[in-house]
Amino acid sequence: MFPFLESSMKDLKAKTVRSGFAKLCGQAAGFMLRFASFIVMARLLDPKDFGLVAMVTAVTGLYGLFTSAGLSTATIQRPVISYGQLSALFWVNLLVGVILAFACILTAPVLVKFYDEPRLFWVTVAVAAGFIFNSAAVQHSALMQRQLRFIALTLIEILSQLVGFVVGVGMAVADLGYWALVAASIVSPAVFLICVWSVAQWIPGPPRRDAEIGLMLRFGGTLTLNSVVAYVAYNLEKVLLGRFWGPDILGLYGRAYQLIIMPTENLNSAVGGVTFSALSRLQDDPERLRRYFLKGYALVNSLTLPITAFSALFADDIILTCLGPKWMDAASIFRLLTPTVMIFGVINPLAWLLLALGLYGRNLRIALVVSPLIITAYVVGLPFGPNGVAFAYSAAMTLWLVPHVLWCVHGTVISPWHLVLAVSRPFLSAVVAAAFAFGARKYIGDWASPLLRLIFDGGVMAITYLTMLLFVMGENNLYIDIFRELLSRGRAEPY
């Protein structure tokens, strides 16, 4: 065993909070960067450009799930890992990436025939390069996460996004259309690969057959299968809309979906990455594991719920401000998807708990049950267009919420009542804040530009929400504790 691979339990709380804060700040910066790219690209390109690329990525994104083969999670979750095991996993990931690149190229003519769109051929071929870049970076990134080196990892993520953004905008300004989106999607992982190899300072050794990675491969295989099932369930509607309604409609739906899910996806990623790493170190300490999980869970929902409520109330102004007048048909889709995103905020963090405890089999069974429900909803809503699909999607997720929660926490140190307490305070605070913001809008009316209205409505809602959450609901102690740990100067232990 190599000492730099082992994470110390000393000062775990302080390191987790500081890493989480760095990750959250990085995610905020990354979100602003992606948001800027989102806005600029929406104005430089047409819905059809986004729809053409989405036709490819909705399918090839399925291949992307095999890039890590679940082995990054296995690296983080495993209590002890050797240099030989880590090297073996690197070569497995790289081999998978090469296979996926070839599979992507072979898929190109199939997509051309399926969508009856010749332009998709070279787009699909170009996207194949991303699989190799991503797979070569999997274990280096996982090693840095295992060591809670989230500050460096976050800076790398921001830099790679920035370079991709600059390249994409430059090509869009040069009137290269959908190729601007393709280039950005390839450049970002290439930059990430170069940086993570430079910073991780780990060189994999030659592959060895005696590395004893069988259990980790089974763990990763189960996670990958779970990801495949979930991906199909949560992305099949894009394939169906592209096939039966065309690239323009898919472009509208895809932009609305990405815009509504972007904030909560970033929050879950920021808090979840750090929380999972910490929980994996606490598998044998149930009491600390429960406390860590519930704090992270409460934090995610305290941020997700008000953002989603605000999005539902002011969808028209959000679309008009972010995307422009030519995208106004996406506003109704955006609003109809808000219940789905709110439920994601409640249920997605439960995966941290299941994976940290090694309950990946249960995670897979849950995905196998929910997938037919969601796919059925797509089929029912498809004849009614993107609005019908969005409504059916949200209805299915609402029905699934309670069974999902009960199944996830069964037999663990977390009870349903723990989750109710963690969610109830931010939920009630968000409801009150949304009512105040809505009342203020009705009282003042449409008095200014959409951007100014959003700033005013957001200010009213933020002040009301924070007052309710921190003082009326008494959640100020949670954030004071987090702030104290953030300021603590516990010395980081070597890994």
Can you offer a commentary on this structure?
- With 495 residues, the chain is mostly helical.
- It has helices at 12-44, 47-64, 71-77, 83-115, 120-127, 129-146, 150-173, 179-200, 214-280, 286-313, 315-322, 330-336, 338-347, 350-356, 360-381, 385-409, 416-444, 450-472, 476-487.
- It has one domain (3-487).
- The chain is built from 19 helices and no strands.
- It starts with 11 loop residues before the first helix and ends in an 8-residue tail after the last helix.
Instruction: Tally the structural domains.
Output: 1
Count of discrete alpha- or pi-helical segments spanning 4 or more residues: 19
Q: Please trace the helix and strand order, writing H or E for each element.
A: HHHHHHHHHHHHHHHHHHH
Please give the alpha-carbon distance between the first and last residues. 12 Å
Beta content comes to under 5%
